[in-house]
Amino acid sequence: MTSGLTGKLLLATPALKDPNFHRAVVLVLNHDEDGALGVVVNRPLSVDVAAVLPGWQPFTTAPGKLYQGGPVALDSALGLVAVPGDRPEPLGVRRVFGSVGLGSVGLVDLDAPPEVVAAELAGLRIFAGYAGWSAAQLEGEIAEGAWFVLPAESRDPFTDTPDKLWADVLRRQGGDLALVASFPEDPSLN
């Protein structure tokens, strides 16, 4: 269950006490024997993309804000893009998951000219920082019950309601996981 998590969503369970990941939805961008890397896709900041990467601002998916991708390297930026289903991988984009015909999500080279790359894209979000795990660390956290591992949909990282994404992903699973979506923010107030 824990091998090959690239392209999966990690949803923080109510048991995860780390405030950096409270109700976080993490898209795993890379997972192998050396560890894992992902971005939290449901944490918009109040900062416009133009404040750090002005050339990319016109091409970002609404609301055009920078997102906090995780607690690691907050001074770095990652660009996540949606590639429409009928297009091959555009210049400057590395596919993370999905395929031609179905649509895909990829990483964009933020040093590439935005005008050249953006014409081929259906969505763009810029993340400050990322979430990272050393070898076997993520697997251990999953075994301890800190994360739900769930399938991602290509629209998840570009949702216009990031504050509802954690509950929305759980509800679409059905069964017991759908019930977790109604878990109170602070169980002690229940």
TrEMBL record:
It comes from the Bacteria. Pfam families: DUF179. GO terms for cellular component: cytosol. Transmembrane segments: none annotated. Belongs to the UPF0301 (AlgH) family. This is UPF0301 protein CLV92_11848.
